[in-house]
Amino acid sequence: MQNFISFNDVENYTQLLNTALEIKSNPFGQQDLGKNKTIGLLFFNPSLRTRLSSVKAAYNLGANCWVLNAGADSWTLEMSDGTVMNGDTQEHIKEAIGVMSAYCDILGVRTFPKLEERDYDYNEVMFNKVKELSSVPVVSLESATLHPLQSFADLITVAEYSGYQPHQKFDKKVKVVMTWAPHPRKLPQAVPNSFAQWFSKVDWVDFTITHPKGYELSSDFTQGAHIEYDQEKAFEDADFIYAKNWSSFENYGQIIPQEMDWQVTLDKMKLTNNGKFMHCLPVRRNVVVSDGVLDSEHSIVIPEATNRIYSAQTVFHEILKTL
Ligand SMILES: NCCC[C@H](NC(=O)CCC(=O)O)C(=O)O
Ligand SMILES: NC(=O)OP(=O)(O)O
């Protein structure tokens, strides 16, 4: 693996999943791989899980790790070329990434969308700029449009809770439903795009997306998914409910007023096949999902977040192998 930016960087998802399960069963077995290697993590936006799980993953592999929160604990970076830098920005991204890639062997980067101009976000202008300037492999820690480390952790989680065994076929496909849920702020489409990109490809999964009209995701990521506008119908017999809010792709970055209540509740979970509840976190309690669900046996959000260690560790492992 050269870089990890989307599902398209994965040659064989089954092999990658099996490697992750092996690594999870013996997390300190590959400490030689990271010896004298450094993983750098650059955040342009806040993080809890991605930051801490990536640090833990690096340490598990015997690698060093540093973290920089751009702007917050470094100089304010200038992103545009040709700017006369006599204003607020103090260092150009060209020097910053040049220097940072001299200080690490893999560079992880988080760049959220601005949710203003769709083309700017969907062309991944900011992420691609960092990637082009980096002289070392790049890992997405969530870009404007995708969050592959999250989706890979979600795949590991669904596999574990479905009784997945390598080389064994399922009698019946596992029903995974991604549901839109309410939120007071406008949020990116990165997590749902990425989840759809991964789960519509998994051959043992029957994948449905449910959302109100107006919240259609880009069809670049949803090919192969069933779209169901009736949330309760979508929940019937589901093995996994994956909740996430996102703002509109069509009316880019907007929140469209909804009449129906899309919060995930215990009543709705009763429609499922005793389904498991998943969310990438952070989650707004009693807005996206009720306390009743999060505090019940349905919820697997903590094991899901735990698997962020193993998705990151597997990706670093695969890249370190090539260095
Ligand atoms: N990295 C996981 C999700 C990050 C982000 N959530 C948020 O910004 C939630 C913040 C809030 O609840 O105000 C998102 O949806 O893409
Ligand atoms: N799920 C996730 O990426 O969490 P953070 O934003 O806290 O890293």
Automatic annotation (TrEMBL):
Family matches, as InterPro entries: ArgF'-like, Asp/Orn_carbamoyltranf_P-bd, Asp/Orn_carbamoylTrfase, Asp/Orn_carbamoylTrfase_sf, Asp_carbamoyltransf_Asp/Orn-bd
Pathways involved: Amino-acid biosynthesis; L-arginine biosynthesis
Catalytic activity, as annotated: N(2)-succinyl-L-ornithine + carbamoyl phosphate = N(2)-succinyl-L-citrulline + phosphate + H(+)
Binding site for N(2)-succinyl-L-ornithine: 142, 183, 244, 284
Annotated residues for binding of carbamoyl phosphate: 47-50, 75, 110, 147-150, 280-281, 308
Aspartate/ornithine carbamoyltransferase carbamoyl-P binding domain location: 3-160
GO molecular function: amino acid binding; ornithine carbamoyltransferase activity
Residues of the Aspartate/ornithine carbamoyltransferase Asp/Orn-binding domain: 191-316
Keyword set includes Cell wall biogenesis/degradation: no
Keywords for the protein's UniProt record, in alphabetical order: Amino-acid biosynthesis, Arginine biosynthesis, Transferase
Superkingdom of source: Bacteria
E.C. code: 2.1.3.11
SUPFAM superfamilies, per database record: Aspartate/ornithine carbamoyltransferase
Single Gene Ontology BP annotation: citrulline biosynthetic process
Xref: PANTHER family: ORNITHINE CARBAMOYLTRANSFERASE, MITOCHONDRIAL, ORNITHINE TRANSCARBAMYLASE, MITOCHONDRIAL
Family: Belongs to the aspartate/ornithine carbamoyltransferase superfamily. SOTCase family.
NCBIfam families (alphabetical): PRK04523.1 (NF003384)
HAMAP family: SOTCase
Function: Catalyzes the transfer of the carbamoyl group from carbamoyl phosphate to the delta-amino group of N(2)-succinyl-L-ornithine to produce N(2)-succinyl-L-citrulline. Is essential for arginine biosynthesis.
Subunit structure and binding partners: Homotrimer.
Protein name, per record: N-succinylornithine carbamoyltransferase
